[in-house]
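Homework help board

Subject: predicted structure for assignment chain

Our instructor gave us this sequence and asked us to write out the predicted structure in token form, then describe one feature. I got the tokens but I'm not sure how to describe them. Can anyone check?
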Amino acid sequence: MPKRIPEEIRRKIVDKAEEGLDGVQIAKHLEELHKAGKIDDIPPHLRTIQEIAKTVKPVDPSGSWRLMDSEPEDAALILPVLLEVFDYTGGRRQSLTKREAEIVCKIRRVVAPPSERRRSAWGDRLDGFETFKLAREYIRREDRAESTEDLDRIVAIAAIGFVPSPEEKEYIAKLEGDDNARTHPKEG
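My token output:
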């Protein structure tokens, strides 16, 4: 009987597969996290990682966003995010979906660019790649009819420059993919 994969590891496999990493790259990433003490569980075998990764479907089927799909003002908000996604993924991810672009645009309209935002300890944390990750999480949650209240709070924090508590910072880091973060402060 196959060993049950811890949810934390399964989620990391799925996230990296969505970013365009193949099974070998994901296995290497998990091994590095394990060696660094960022995950406690021993990563599964390569074949298991590959099987999980190949089941990953696109986050949304809306199709690739194109410059011609948006008004110039919207494209000016989307393109810097697309560039950061391309850079962060080493070119594995070369486009956003239409739905991702729509949500990125909404987030960027609410959260002024860092140069225009009030400076605070937390006010400059929502860069382009983090905006993309938030957009993907909004899509996942909406598709599952799950609450997005915590995501809305992240956007609010970035928009007004609110300085969260250490527990809130840890939770936000977890949503942003920080492997050292703990659960939501209200969840214990």
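Reply (TA_rk): Your tokens look well-formed. For the description, you could write something like this. Confidence is low (pLDDT under 50) at residues 117-123, 180-188. That's the kind of observation they're looking for.
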